[in-house]
Amino acid sequence: MRSIRRLNHLAILAAAASVMALLVTMAESSPRLRIDLDADASQMSELVRLAQGAHVIGIGESHDHPAHHAAQARIVEALATAGVSLALAFEMLTQDQQAGVDASLAENLSAEQLDARLAWTSRGWPDFAMYFPLFELARRHRLAVIAADLEPASVRTVSRRGLGAVSDDDREGLRSRLPVNTDREDALRRELKDAHCGFLPAAAQGTMAEAWHARNVTIARRTLEAVNRGRTVVLITGRGHLAPDAIPGQLAELRPGSRSFVVDLVEEGTTALPNADVVWTTARMVRPDKCEELRKRMPRGREGTSGHERQM
Questions:
Q1: Residue range 48-57: average pLDDT?
Q2: Residue 300: helix, strand or coil by DSSP?
């Protein structure tokens, strides 16, 4: 069952990329800076210059791509060295982990120790070694680290039963701030179904869409808490969360006038986000077919059902 849960979790992570693929068709990307494979010193300086004045700098990754994490570390190092007052926020850490994150970073833990303390690998995220340099930068430059995502219990409740299953106070905090758009929501449901390899039944698609928005609203709120304390937030997240109707849209609705700056780490042959300020192209990774792997591991007789009930 552990392997099934892990595959379901990875399928949910892949949904972000699938939703992004839908949204990028809305407009052509016209970035202010393009970087091909590796950035030279002048390009890094230009990136820092362009990012000046942003409230949230989102660096969108493919979670399993080592080159994306190397680029993130270079960007954070360049911004910190330039004197930008930063906080570092992670989609991979949930808000209920914040006290543990703060305590762990106060200690000089190895990558293996910090991985275990943050339950990183056990929660299904890719190799922590790729992310560890970001935590080292946070220590060296004394950057606050924000555990940004919605806690798992709430994600499970909303994804299974919808926003109506949470308390009135929680519902108000988790509801999407985006303007009503039926076409967008219908398309999101279709993409979630596809991202779950066809195992997501129609009844679950709406609640999963609500959970997607609830996560984006939560991450937006958590980053704005640091913005309101005078910090520029660098957000480490999957590319899909930086699409126009994801976190940037929620930020704009929650705090009108907020400026998002999007760095899209995009693999060769992949369409960039339409709202990307910087498009940094990396080599394309060859990956196994996640749907085939999931089919092999589904319990006999459950192939036509959703992993929805067993996610996370």
A1: 97
A2: coil
Structure token pair of residue 55: 């409230």
CB 73 within 8 A of CB 133: yes
Are 178 and 23 in contact, with CB atoms under 8 Å apart? no
- Whole-number mean pLDDT of the chain? 88
Q: Are 217 and 172 in contact (CB under 8 A)?
A: no
Of 171, 213, 164, the residue nearest 192 (C-alpha) = 213
Helix (H) or strand (E) holding 6: helix 2-23
The CA distance from 52 to 10, in Å, is: 34
| Residue (of 152, 170, 156, 150) closest to 208 by Cα position | 156
Q: Is residue 168 scored above 50 in pLDDT?
A: yes
CA distance 121 to 136: 18
CATH of the domain at 262: 3.40.50.11550
Q: pTM score, two decimals?
A: 0.88
DSSP 273: P
Q: Where are the beta strands (DSSP E) in the chain?
A: 33-36, 56-61, 86-94, 144-149, 232-238, 260-267, 278-282
């069952």: which residue's tokens? Answer: 1
Indicate whether 293 belongs to any domain: no
| Domain residue limits at 108 | 31-179+204-287
How distant is the alpha carbon of residue 164 from its chain centre? Answer: 25
Cross-strand bridge partners of residue 264: 60, 279
